[in-house]
Amino acid sequence: MGIRRMAGTAAGALGLSWVVRAAWGIPSAMGASISAIQPYATGAATYRNRQFHNTEPSSQLAAGSAPSLLVSALTKRNAGRPSGVIPLQTPQLPSAAADLAVTWYGHATALIEVDGYRVLTDPVWSERVSPSALVGPTRMHPVPTPLAELPTVDAVIISHDHYDHLDKETVRELVLRQTAPFLVPIGIGAHLRHWGVPEHRIIELDWGGSISLSALGRARAGADLVLTCSEARHFSGRGLIRNTTLWASWSIAGPTKRVYFGGDTGYTKAFAEAGAALGPFDLTLLPIGAYDERWRDVHMNPEEAVRAHADLCVGDAGHGLLVPIHWATFNLAFHGWSEPVRRMVSAAETAGTKIAVPMPGQRVDPIGTPPRDSWWEDVG
Question: Which of 46, 61, 205, 282 has its CA 20 to 30 A from that of 22?
């Protein structure tokens, strides 16, 4: 065999090997089939024609924007990467949960403390948010601490099934290391079952549905926690077919404190409705990144996040504390890395909204003194 032919054969073998490794595990990571999801989705308020729908007219991508999106993908794909190193803090957690605090682990993953309970949101510890181990967005900073060092949590809440919010490997490890139930919007339970989560640890709710930890046999004496699946304006899907599972935000209400976790959502009138029915909230965690005019219906920009906080606090922009999420960790849009937080800070100053911007791993205690340094300015 000639040298060129041998080299070509070797290159082909290497290419095939890479393809096999890139594809390995994809079917499992994608989760449950539509046929497994549908029995749980049928009958939900916004489920029709085998899909979930927003209550407000919404487009995942503005009409006619596909050509400009392709240009952006070719010319701005690295715009969201910082020029410097993103700093981390090793989480400093008390032995007992506080009345109100939050530790941000990056993106939409946070550990919320409410009236002595701990609630984990959209846990993602994997390096890549994709069904493939070799293709897809990777972390721009490490996870601040291993999942094994997470304290005991009382509940895990999931906003929707996109890969940057629902991660198979993290779910599997939480099943082994924790006993907490998974509270999810309708349909996502099928993914969890597919990955081996025990049935008794899966609670599926429609928008407006609530459950207390006492009903799950997990309440502590003298205090209960009520978690409500709240309307969001987004979409779902882990494959080519969209909206087979529901998406949501979450209200977490204890005897004295209330927290709102936005997950990932466009601006919606549902914020004001949640504020009136469930608020006012003492702490809001709202997405500020991965926005673009071409998909503005389903992703808020920073100014809208500040407006949403006021809605959730029943029109009082100065009530409670806004902590931004859904930025800094994964490059998912075409804006600059620090643009979301800079815009949010400016909008908050104008509105009189109290904010805290923790670095990954940093714990914020709204009752104490929230962090006020502009650490992101040193990152670029």
Answer: 61
